[in-house]
Design a protein that fits this description.
By secondary structure, the protein is mainly alpha-helical. The chain folds into three domains: 70 residues, Multidrug-efflux Transporter Regulator, Chain: A, Domain 2; 39 residues, no CATH class; 137 residues, no CATH class. Helix content is 73%, strand content 4%. It contains 14 helices and three strands. Strands 1-3-2 form a three-stranded antiparallel beta sheet. Helix 9 runs antiparallel to helix 10. It starts with a strand and ends with a helix. About 4% of the residues have low confidence.
């Protein structure tokens, strides 16, 4: 099948003049010229036009687009590349939509959006550390999970997290032993909290990697001053670490 320049222009949302310009500069040749001089485009030409429009929307100049396309000999590989670019763009737009939706939720509920809530959790600032420890998928899935929450859901999650931290601090201040029933009950809550975060080894059910993650998290609470402060200082964080390590030894 083939289509006239007017049909292609209307379908692609460009003008016939634009397509003629693409022809003039060698970016997109019609598949044939009719006896009347009309330009006709077949499926291969439309596939190239699709690539041109995609790369143009990503901000590339026409000469750069021509160079990129002319260097691509493998059409299937090029299409896979295009899909990857579109998926990246979709993810970027979804994050923007989520941010605007959070702001709208905040306004309709009569409160201002919290910058801390917008950045807290397993999201962008922790990317390098998460990827280094647990892989790209762990970051991507946990990050998508966090950004997919409404503001109310983030507030509820933060409230549950604060309650968990409070339970740890109270157990430590009351002199509980890391291996006590009380400490182990909080440790079980903590592991369940980790399991609720998609993409993490605890959520995947991999026992060995999940145990390693819980031990790592416990160590991080002691090593990171911000986390340690949340648990009442280094001694409180060490209590949490020891209780989590004991939980791994006995229950995982």
């Amino acid at each position: 099948m083939e289509w006239t320049i007017q049909q292609v222009a209307a379908r692609a949302g460009v003008t016939s003049r634009t397509l003629r310009h693409y022809d003039d500069i060698g970016l997109l040749r019609p598949s044939r010229l009719g006896e009347n001089g009309y330009r006709y485009y077949d499926a291969d030409a439309l596939a190239r036009l699709q690539a041109v429009l995609l790369l143009r929307d990503l901000g590339l100049s026409l000469p750069v687009i021509a160079d990129v396309l002319d260097r691509r000999a493998d059409e299937e590989a090029a299409l896979r590349d295009h899909i990857g670019l579109l998926e990246d763009e979709r993810a970027r737009l979804e994050r923007r939509i989520a941010a605007v939706r959070h702001t709208l939720d905040a306004r309709t509920s009569g409160r201002d959006p919290s910058m801390e809530m917008m950045l807290d959790g397993f999201n962008d600032p922790y990317r390098d550390e998460v990827v280094a420890r647990w892989g790209e998928r762990a970051f991507r899935e946990s990050n998508d999970w966090w950004h997919g929450k409404t503001l109310r859901e983030r507030v509820a999650w933060k409230r549950d997290t604060d309650a968990l931290v409070t339970a740890w601090v109270e157990a430590w201040r009351d002199g509980a032993d890391p291996g006590s029933a009380r400490a182990q009950e909080v440790a079980a809550r903590h592991v369940a909290w980790l399991r609720a975060i998609p993409g993490t080894p605890t959520a995947d059910g991999d026992r060995e990697r999940a145990a390693a993650m819980v031990r790592c998290v416990g160590g991080t609470y002691v090593e990171n001053p911000e986390f340690a402060a949340a648990y009442g200082g280094v001694d409180g964080a060490a209590f949490v670490r020891d209780a989590l390590h004991e939980y791994v030894r006995v229950s995982m």
